[in-house]
């Protein structure tokens, strides 16, 4: 069956309404927490490097999922609007964060009514799940319109030298592709922040995450036990050239 984003993610979040569902389903909740900690570290590097802060900003969280980054931006003093392709996300987050606004929308489709532009548009772990070229192009068109002049877009992808499709629901695009597509939508790439290299890969457990063999259980335990170490090593030795996931920061041009 062909990959259909809305159905795929609705079922995945129904089965795993947690960081496992929005992160790597093959990893444990413990391991996924370290992945998300690395993402927070990447965001802090953005604020420190650019000398900006989310405090007082209007933030759009595209692909708000289980609300991890909604809570993060709330802690930072921002006002958050969230959109997600799934009904379960929007309904749950409306109850959890009644002070914020949430919409069920597909960023890869044309919108009849556009929202007002935002100071920060946060698009983590979304664009590489839009595997079709037309969906990807439409998403960046929408993102450009959703960002105010002078505002920032923060997105994640592998953004390496090549575009490739490792799974039916994943297409990682090259940095050159992003530079070109962002520019087409009035966005200038400012910064590339590596997120992880040692994290986000299995170093011991190569078999299915559902396997119950003694070795599979031990290998998964070793991967989990190593997560804090890999997180620490990424903090010390990570570079943009060797990362397997990157955070791209672009700014909307003032004259567009």
Quick overview of this protein structure:
By secondary structure, the protein is of the alpha/beta class. It has helices at 5-15, 19-22, 29-50, 68-75, 87-96, 133-146, 175-184, 214-237, and strands at residues 58-62, 79-84, 101-104, 118-123, 147-157, 164-167, 170-172, 187-196, 245-252. The chain has a single domain, classed as Rossmann fold (3-Layer(aba) Sandwich).
Folded structure, characterized:
The protein is of the alpha/beta class and 256 residues long. It has a single domain (5-252), classed as Vaccinia Virus protein VP39 (Rossmann fold), CATH 3.40.50. Helix content is 40%, strand content 22%. The protein starts with a helix and ends with a strand. The mean pLDDT is 94.
Main pleated-sheet profile:
7 strands, mixed
**How many E-type strands?**
9
Mean pLDDT: 94
Q: First CA to last CA: what distance? A: 41 Å
Any idea how many domains? 1
> Quick one: CATH class?
Alpha Beta
CATH architecture label name? 3-Layer(aba) Sandwich
Strand percentage lies at 15-25%
Unreliable parts: none
The helix tally amounts to 8
The ordered H/E elements are HHHEHEHEEHEEEHEHE
Instruction: Characterize the overall form.
Output: globular
């Amino acid at each position: 069956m062909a990959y259909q984003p809305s159905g795929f993610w609705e079922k995945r979040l129904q089965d795993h309404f947690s960081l496992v569902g929005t992160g790597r389903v093959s990893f444990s909740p413990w391991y996924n927490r370290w992945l998300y900690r690395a993402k927070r570290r990447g965001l802090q590097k953005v604020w420190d490097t650019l000398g900006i802060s989310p405090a007082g900003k209007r933030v759009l969280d595209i692909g708000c999922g289980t609300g991890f980054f909604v809570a993060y931006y709330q802690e930072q003093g921002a006002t958050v609007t969230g959109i997600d392709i799934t009904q379960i996300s929007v309904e749950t987050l409306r109850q959890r964060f009644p002070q914020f606004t949430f919409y069920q929308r597909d960023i890869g489709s044309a919108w009849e009514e556009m929202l007002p532009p935002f100071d920060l548009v946060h698009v983590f772990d979304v664009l590489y799940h839009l595997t079709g070229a037309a969906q990807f192009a439409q998403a960046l068109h929408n993102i450009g319109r959703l960002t105010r002049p002078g505002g920032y877009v923060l997105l994640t992808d592998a953004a390496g030298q090549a575009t490739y499709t490792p799974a039916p629901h994943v297409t990682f695009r090259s940095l050159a592709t992003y530079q070109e597509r962002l520019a087409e939508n009035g966005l200038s790439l400012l910064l590339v922040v590596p997120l992880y290299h040692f994290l986000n890969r299995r170093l011991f457990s190569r078999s299915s995450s559902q396997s119950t063999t003694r070795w599979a259980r031990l290998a998964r335990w070793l991967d989990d036990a190593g997560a804090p170490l890999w997180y620490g090593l990424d903090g010390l030795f990570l570079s943009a050239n060797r990362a397997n996931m990157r955070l791209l920061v672009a700014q909307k041009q003032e004259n567009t």
